Amino acid sequence: LDGAPDIMMLAFKPQNLSAFAHDIGARFGPATTLMSILAGVTAAQLRSIFPKAGAIIRAMPNLAAGIGLGVTALYAEAADATVRETGNRLTAPLGSVTWLQDEALFDAVTALSGCGPGFVFRFIDAVAQAGAALGLPAKQALQLALKTVEGAAVMASVSAEPPAVLADRVASPGGATRAGLDVLDDGAALARLMQATLAAAAKRSAELAQG
Fold first, then answer.
1. How buried is 27 (Cβ within 10 angstroms: 0-12 exposed, 13-18 middle, 19+ buried)?
2. d(C-alpha 167, C-alpha 177), whole Å
3. pLDDT of residue 211
4. Following CA atoms 106, 107, 108, 113 in sequence, which dihedral angle do they give, to the nearest 10 degrees?
5. What sections of 29-186 are H helices per DSSP?
6. What are 8-32's pLDDT values in tens digits?
7. Cα dihedral angle (191, 193, 197, 202), rounded to 10 degrees?
8. Coil, strand, or helix at residue 171?
9. pLDDT per residue over 108-148, tens digit each?
10. Bridge-partner residues for 56, per DSSP?
11. Cα dist. 173→2, 155, 179 in Å?
């Protein structure tokens, strides 16, 4: 590198951070915006390693960023308008962007949107298996499950109503959807399952950050 870069993105395994800092960290200047997607490495840690850098932004994209449909959570030490514009510009091609006010929420973000695709994949597989158990050919059940989840997600994303309201609107009193929802809602079974799932993921995320 010749001179201080305008933007530097850290996108490698966190354990390699010390080698990176030794190699080019000294080249950073006050005009350098440093964006990091290193899981578990805080803004304060980055500041101590790269004291010459300007703005420091932490980012947590998720899997669907690879197809431009992801969501990226951003946090900056001082998220003024210029910093936000830079962060938005760098991550908008990956999908949607949301800014965190509290850096401590990154473990929750990791559990929800970072790990979330894995949980959704498992849900789709479970729905497909349930359809196959009712007699549908497995391949057809999977196709129906995939397209049902895809369509419902798009509808929820463009609706002014929250998903809970949409679910109730689909369910006619005494109808088939209501019968199924009664199973999911009994004792808040699905809500409790997802709370436990995300809590386990967030706990592990925090443990990994501690090394």
1. middle
2. 9
3. 67
4. 80
5. 43-49, 81-91, 106-109, 116-133, 138-158, 163-170, 176-185
6. 999 988 888 888 787 777 788 888 9
7. 40
8. coil
9. 999 999 999 999 999 999 999 999 999 999 999 999 999 99
10. 34
11. 69, 22, 9
- What are the tokens at 68? 């431009």
How many angstroms from the chain centroid is the CA of residue 28? Answer: 29
Q: Which amino acid, one-letter code, is at 168?
A: D
Parallel/antiparallel/unpaired status of strands 95-99 and 70-76: parallel
Cβ proximity of 72 and 59 under 8 Å: yes
pLDDT value of position 123 = 98
Alpha-helix runs per DSSP H in 26-115: 43-49, 81-91, 106-109
List beta partners, residue 73.
60, 98
Q: Taking residues 150-168, report their average pLDDT.
A: 97
Three-state SS at 71: strand
27-41, 127-141, 178-192, range with the lowest pLDDT:
27-41
Tokens 């695709």 locate to: 117
Residue type, 45: Q
